[in-house]
Amino acid sequence: MMNNGVETRGLTVRRGRTTVIDRLDLNVPRGAIVGLLGPSGSGKTTLMRAIVGVQIVADGRVTVLGEPAGAAVLRHRVGYMTQRASIYDDLTVRANLRYFARVQGASVADVDRVLERTDLLGQAEQLARTLSGGQTNRVSLAAAMLGSPDLLVLDEPTVGLDPVLRAALWDIFRRLSDDGTTLLVSSHVMDEATRCDRLLLMRDGAVIADTTPSEMLKSTGAGSAEDAFLAMITADSAQSGSPSRPEDLPSRPEHVTHLLSRDEAAPVRQRRKRSSRRTGGRR
Length: 283
Fold this sequence. Notes:
The chain is an alpha/beta fold and 283 residues long. It folds into two domains: 4-77 and 149-278, Rossmann fold, CATH 3.40.50; 90-146. It is built from eight helices and ten strands. The longest helix has 17 residues, at 262-278. Keywords: ATP-binding, Nucleotide-binding. Residues 6-229 form the ABC transporter domain.
């Protein structure tokens, strides 16, 4: 237990009659950056909500830093960054952080520390609505860092950002990890996999791989993270009776590869089949 920041055993989450997560067991080692990767709808956000204690759980248990998820004693030990920025547009960056410091019971003096750690001192007096996408994400991260939590749960913190801004955020994540913070970072951007210490690949509510970047490449014989993920998904799909093909993956704008869930992949296959029929099978 002492070596894990997060443990789930038999975790099951349902929405109505739909099982979103089914009897999930996983470990998040302390002090590591663990990437939670997978397509939209794979259960990443639901899992993160269960870890921070705001998700209704049908069965199983979630243990965070040795305590039940959502326990009052974890209030100051866990920071959570949601997908959508949770800041107020009509307040300055500093005013936003001072507000969240009071809400979280953190010292207002901690605001300057997180501003410096996230490289936001130069924007401290700007209204939030004037910030760029990357700056807005950093304000949300700064809010999650208030009080120096032992665990940061970050839900797609780099979504919509260009490669330069993504790299800047990952530099911050690495510095936090070097200081002993445990980070669980979700993403569906495949080039971020190699920045993690460990990887959890989710698909359709299950973890189909728990590995490291180097182990992933070695076990699949792939030359890149995206090819390795494709190999894992192909193997998982074949085992489950729902074959997946390379063309099920979308195109790569700005050299970013995303994964498709089985439901998302189906209409893509149908469109490609119709297109192939219209062109006589020509590419």
